[in-house]
């Protein structure tokens, strides 16, 4: 099978065409609206002050873009459209309708942030106050505003929906059976400053009387783990996905995630077996939208189904007390990815994981893109 190009891997052609059309239309309406504003002295947008005589030449002075109104003083005299004899009071229902329509459109259809919608509404209503619009101009402003909503809503929504899937063992922590942990390694890790704790885990094995077997585990946290989770949680939704058994992983995660930053915890039963590897983590069980989901795992075969969504991190062990991967390497990369509409082009350029998997004999036909 021929090598996949970058565009074939991630960018849906329909989405590219749609964004190009929206971009062109938004640019067109912006230019058109600026032309109309520049031609304000023509009859289409002519204004007359209520204090000027009907026979005097029409001219107006725009209001400042930001105006503090003294509520104790009388409002300024109304500005009329000479051809319609318009009063600003007539625009109050229109302004309210405009804001209501935009607010409903953004919240329900585009799922946009309420504060951004309010800001956009304020800008649009400022335009309405600056220029008492005829129906034609008002429609132009409305269309232009809707185009801006459509063009930028994808970015706004996605910036709040970044999804990061984190592996557990050898990515966030390393764990050893206490009875088999070499004393020298334990001493090196503790003297090196690694945070550690001991854990009792319920094994699937049974003791002689049929009681669950208890295993004692010593866990070392990767340096910077708590700061990493805290800072990452500020711009991404976190999901823990481990191939470990729940009896072992659940109490461990309870210790490292006391703030409950993980919105989901997935264990071995959530993994799948493929023709090439077992315990594969299929990201589509978390989200069908693969544009904004990233998995960080020390085992690349964990994300063999979605090779352009994975970050293959360096495995962590107790012999690496001065490891800086979480805060110095992985966190900055995840922050960069959180600002992308589609994380896959960036990850492809950085790691070329599809090429690597093909060299391992895993064809592209096994991928979910």
From TrEMBL:
Record flagged with keyword Cell membrane: no
Pfam family, one: NIF
PROSITE patterns associated with the record: FCP1
Top-level lineage group: Eukaryota
Cleavable signal peptide: none
Cross-referenced SMART domains: CPDc
Organism per entry: Flemingia macrophylla
Species classification: Eukaryota, Viridiplantae, Streptophyta, Embryophyta, Tracheophyta
Transmembrane regions: 21-40, 115-132, 139-159
InterPro entries: Dullard_phosphatase, FCP1_dom, HAD-like_sf, HAD_sf, TIM50
Keywords: Membrane, Transmembrane, Transmembrane helix
Domain FCP1 homology: 157-337
The protein, known as: FCP1 homology domain-containing protein
């Amino acid at each position: 099978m021929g090598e996949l190009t970058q565009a074939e891997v991630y960018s849906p052609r329909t989405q590219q065409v749609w964004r190009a059309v929206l971009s062109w239309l938004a640019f067109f309406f912006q230019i058109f609206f600026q032309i109309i504003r520049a031609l304000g002295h023509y009859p289409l947008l002519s204004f007359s002050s209520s204090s000027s005589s009907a026979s005097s030449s029409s001219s107006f002075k725009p209001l400042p873009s930001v105006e503090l109104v003294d509520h104790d003083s009388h409002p300024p005299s109304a500005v009329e459209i000479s051809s319609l004899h318009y009063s600003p009071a007539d625009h109050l229902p229109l302004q309210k309708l405009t804001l209501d329509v935009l607010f409903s459109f953004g919240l329900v259809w585009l799922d946009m942030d309420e504060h951004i919608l309010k800001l956009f509404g304020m800008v649009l209503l400022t335009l309405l106050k600056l220029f008492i619009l005829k129906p034609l101009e008002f429609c132009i402003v409305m269309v232009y505003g809707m185009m801006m909503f459509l063009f930028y809503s994808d970015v706004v929504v996605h910036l709040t929906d970044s999804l990061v899937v984190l592996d557990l063992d050898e990515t966030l922590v390393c764990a050893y059976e206490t009875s088999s942990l070499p004393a020298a390694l334990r001493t090196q890790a503790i003297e090196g400053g690694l945070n550690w704790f001991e854990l009792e885990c319920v094994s699937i094995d049974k003791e002689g009387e049929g009681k669950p077997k208890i295993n004692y585990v010593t866990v070392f946290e990767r340096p910077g783990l708590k700061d990493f989770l805290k800072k990452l949680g500020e711009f991404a939704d976190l999901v823990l996905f481990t191939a470990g058994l729940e009896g072992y992983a659940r109490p461990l995660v309870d210790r490292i995630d006391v703030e409950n930053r993980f919105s989901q915890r997935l264990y071995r039963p959530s993994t799948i077996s493929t023709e090439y590897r077992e315990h594969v983590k299929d990201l589509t069980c978390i989200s069908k939208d693969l544009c904004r989901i990233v998995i960080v795992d020390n085992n690349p075969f964990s994300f063999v189904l979605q090779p352009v969504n994975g970050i293959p991190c360096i495995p962590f062990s107790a012999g690496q007390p001065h490891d800086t991967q979480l805060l110095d390497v992985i966190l900055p990369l995840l922050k960069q990815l959180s600002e992308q509409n589609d994380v896959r082009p960036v990850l492809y350029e950085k790691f070329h994981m599809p090429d690597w998997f093909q060299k391992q004999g895993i064809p592209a036909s096994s991928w979910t893109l």
